[in-house]
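COMPLEX REQUEST
Ligand: zinc ion
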Amino acid sequence: MEKMKRENPDVVSSMVYGQTYEERNITLLKIGLRSTKRKKAIWMDCGIHAREWIAPAFCQYFVKEILQGYKTDTKVKEMMKNLDFYVTPVLNVDGYIYSWLNDSTRLWRKSRSPGPVGCTCYGTDLNRNFYANWGTVGVSTNCCEETYCGTKALSESEARAVTDMLGKMSGDILAFLTIHSYSQLILVPYGHPNISAPNYNELMEVGLGAAKAIKAVHGMDYTVGTSPDIIYPNSGSSCDYARLIGIPLSFTFELRDQGEYGFKLPEDQIQPACEEAYAGVQHIITYAHDKAFYSSAATVTTTLWTTVMTAWVFSATFL
Ligand code: 0X9
Ligand code: ZN
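STATUS: Structure written out below.
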């Protein structure tokens, strides 16, 4: 992150927006061209689940690509003028570092906070700890389980950090993308089976467009849908929280593979997995950008045109 800032001081800055249980910084990179106009934002976080190592790799790849892209690709440059990208390469820093410790900790998923009194296990599933139908479905209340949702919503400082940051920025965020592995899925809100997003059709259409873009890169199939429809119901996820507070486009990506290697994706798949996921993400970002900047421009044009025509009809009739 420091290197990216050093090499691109005009477009990259960083911000510490929280601390983990073990008091490490939670840091994001803000990437965008300076502008006098009010900019919209795209949120991306990776590594909320410790063992899903392809996710932090993807955030790095994404940062590298957009930093190259804005020099060579006019669309990326245009988006960098209108948007700021807020990228958290590793959200669950404690868990991620723990998963690098040795073979026995490699598959750690949760945070690293100790369990409540009377429970000797560690960690809360950060993707069950958000204030989004917290504790209702697809969670465990046993602190030794992988999907332990914590003692209450936002018991974890990592979930609080994201919530606070989103709260400050939510009016400006066009798209919220949270990157996981594995299964090759693009999940749309909600994880709760009884509620559905008001723009479900739009989310599905954009998600299917992203899956098509992914397939065009290396032929990989990604399935699109809500988690109850295609995997399992769940509550307290960051993706659901983002949609609940009004961020219109909220997606969970589950990157490669489909179970052959699972979380231990071999090194030679890092590059292709990132390339295809980049195409999917780019589809969503482009849609979000064009909707915000072109349809409002179109509205202005239509309004102007209507005014001109009304004046013309008025003058033709009465003058
Ligand atoms: O269970 C999860 O937290 C996610 N899958 S994973 O295998 N990476 O753990 C999926 C969460 C999806 N939930 C919503 N989008 N609501
Ligand atoms: Zn995950």
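REMARKS: Residues 49, 52, 127, 180, 187, 189-191, 227, 234, 237, 239-240, 252, 254 surround N~2~-sulfamoyl-L-arginine (ligand 1) (CB under 6 Å). The two ends are 66 Å apart (CA to CA).
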